[in-house]
Design goal:
There is one protein chain. The protein contains 14 helices and 15 strands. With about 400 residues, it is an alpha/beta fold. The strands form 2 sheets. Strands 1, 2, 3, 4, 5, 6, 7, 8 and 9 form a 9-stranded mixed β-sheet that branches. Strands 14-13-10-11-12-15 form a 6-stranded mixed β-sheet, with helices on both faces.
């Protein structure tokens, strides 16, 4: 029945002279998400992207389901709708509504006598003789004649059925359902970044939020085998695979951090261990960013959530980074992060109970205000750590989890 899917973006429309680049990245991402369907093509029109089949046939329900699942993950896309298409003529538009509306009204009328509905029209072709409001009135009048006023109620805010109409210069589209995209900007329209991905709830959500700002994400995780089980690394691989469904797959770098941790344990004041761990994690992230041409470090830190995430400690940890540190969750409370993790599909994996690197040799009473000069004094006791850092880098396990 539906031969066109109309796709809408929002933020891209504000990009001025760079808009074409953003549109190209969005189409590229849409093609990737719908790659299993070979018989479709994408057409860019002003402010919209159409998906159609190459043989001009209607989409099957299975094809629509595949497209729905793919486009829902697509950063940069605001919403999309399966649509019916006709010439930009008022009589043809009304006839198309009359032919298609029973499918949406009849199930409601089968269980009760009235349908709450509304008509929403958008006229991008300003030469069309009716304005948007007049189009809405004309279509609503035809619907009332078709079903009778006693069976209808207009509800402009919470309608059960919305009749959407777009009138353009060469065509008009009628649709009844809008599905959400991921919003934001398309992945690849901003610089690539490296995310510190733990097995917890927070960092996967941070990854998804930064994807929505147009950044392709690679991942760095730390394990402390034999002090932590290899199952904890497998858990992170599964999280990376979930995240990679939302972008062309990013690389996962897995670093055995145990030798650096043992050195810190043996030499430094226990209350500073966690901050010191995090600073050396930043230094390893620096090495990867420098050698792999990544331009920022992303973390799942949120202000005040744990001892290492007080404002003072975040500043001391961030001081070890040579690249900008992006903290998308810094102002979110835990319940909001959990809600987003559930939507993303990472929550159930994240709450599996395996220890991670930060719990190894964890102090009973960590400092919540590790001033930089104190930490630099502790690091001076460690001496030259270059060899340990290089060894950790050279033994990175590298995988792409799809």
């Amino acid at each position: 029945m539906y031969k066109t899917i109309i796709c809408r973006y929002h933020e891209i429309a504000t990009k001025g002279d760079n808009r074409s680049m953003f549109e190209e990245k969005l189409v590229d991402n849409m093609k990737y998400q719908c790659a299993s369907l070979e018989n479709i093509f994408f057409k860019r029109v002003r402010g919209r992207i159409y998906i159609r089949k190459k043989d001009a046939s209607a989409f099957t329900e299975e094809e629509l389901q595949t497209i729905r699942e793919g486009l829902h993950r697509c950063s940069g896309l605001e919403s999309f709708s399966p649509a019916l298409e006709c010439r930009p003529d008022m009589e043809e538009i009304c006839s198309l509504v009359e032919q298609s509306i029973h499918e949406h009204f009849d199930p409601v009328l089968a269980v009760r006598p009235r349908v709450e509905f509304r008509v929403r029209a958008r006229r991008s072709d300003k030469t069309f003789p009716l304005c948007s409001r007049e189009i809405e009135i004309a279509v609503a009048t035809r619907i009332e004649k078709l079903f009778g006023e006693e069976h209808l109620k207009v509800n402009l805010t919470h309608a059960e059925v919305t009749v959407g109409i777009e009138v353009r210069d060469v065509n008009a589209l009628v649709y009844y359902t809008s599905y959400p995209g991921a919003g934001g900007l398309p992945v690849g329209s901003n610089s690539p970044v490296l995310a510190l991905l733990s097995g917890g709830i927070d960092s996967p959500v941070a990854c998804k939020l930064i994807m929505n700002r147009g950044c392709h994400v690679d991942y760095l995780t730390f394990h402390s085998y034999p002090y932590t089980p290899m199952e904890s690394l497998e858990k992170v691989r599964r999280l990376a695979a979930i995240l990679n469904r939302h972008q062309k797959p990013g690389t996962l770098y897995a670093c055995n951090f145990s030798e650096i941790q043992k050195k810190i344990r043996d030499v430094c004041n226990p209350k500073f261990r966690t901050v010191l761990y995090r600073r050396y994690m930043m230094r390893l992230a620096n090495m990867i960013c420098r050698r792999k041409r990544l331009y920022a470090i992303v973390t799942g830190e949120s202000v005040g959530q744990v001892a290492s995430q007080t404002v003072i400690n975040l500043g001391t940890i961030g001081n070890a980074a040579e690249y900008v540190v992006l903290r998308p969750l810094c102002g979110l409370d835990k319940m909001e992060t959990i809600r987003r993790a559930e939507e993303l599909g990472t929550f159930q994996t994240s709450i599996e109970d395996f220890p991670d690197s930060c719990t190894v040799f964890a102090p009973p009473s960590p400092s919540v205000a590790a001033r930089l000069y104190r930490i630099e004094a502790e690091e001076a006791l460690l001496g030259d750590m270059t060899e340990l850092l290089e060894r950790a880098y050279e033994t990175l396990e590298i995988s792409v989890d799809r």
